[in-house]
User: Fold this.
Amino acid sequence: MKEMLKRLNIKYPIIQGGMGNVSAPSLVASVSEAGGLGTIGCGTMEPKVVDRLILETKDRTDKPFALNIPLSVNAHSKELMDLAIQHDIKVVSLSAGNPNPYISILKEKGITVMAVVASVGHATKAEAAGADLLVAEGFEAAGINSPVELTTFTLVPQICKHVSIPVVAAGGIADGYGLAAALMLGASGVQMGTRFIATEEAPYHALYKEKVLQATELSTIVLGRPHGQVRRVLKGVYSEKLLQVESSLDDKAYREHTSEHQHQLGAVKGDDTNGFMNSGQIAGLIDDLPTVKDLIKSMMNTARQQLDKKRKEISALTE
Assistant:
């Protein structure tokens, strides 16, 4: 954990997921100000839009924050890397594609590189290419995930077994219990997206937040399997209708129905009839709307308490 904290220059082992086109400087800055690592997700946004988000985030915090570049999703990946270099962004997260050709380019500029991976093979290749950290993301997570569909609990320890660089657990984590569990599996920290939606600083529509707060363990569905994609979203009018007809759509039509336009309609506009809202399975555990600072503080306190409690229980069993 110490190595990860040092590399990222943060106080607590908690990272915010990118959240694509609904990434918001107010949330990113709040996470970084609270001691975690905020992340601007580039999604499909053009460089000029990302440039504006970077400048706004810098106006809100002087703490480190990351830039997430989804390689196969954004057609401007190289320009976005140039933006990271230009703005002296200290951490870049590479996802949704092969990060290996780009790792050395970023590292030559002094940038710490995180690679989001979903299998042991991807992890070992990213480490060999020079990645500084790995984000092992299970398909419990919100939004687009790997079609191999490995769970976080199985993925994290297997990756930790095969690599020597720090591993961050992502997918299915929303509190200090999840943080403690991830650390015991061998991870150095956690990355969260859905949990940060339900915070005061997150500028998403009230309906989106309310649906997360009211969610149960059965409130998410997976779209896109017939089209080679795994996208986890909240159940809703639009998403459930799409699930019924997606098999009859060709790949192009499906992607048109799951574009970032529909994502923004749901998350930002609160339009559940014409858009969807990303969410991880962990939404069923979320029932309050704290500030980011209070959330991170609570997570750290709970994790400390649980790890100490379990240490004592195990010690008692072995005496």
Remarks:
- Residues 206-282 form one domain.
- The chain has two domains: 2-203, 206-282.
- The first strand starts at residue 14 and ends at 16.
- The two ends are 28 Å apart (CA to CA).
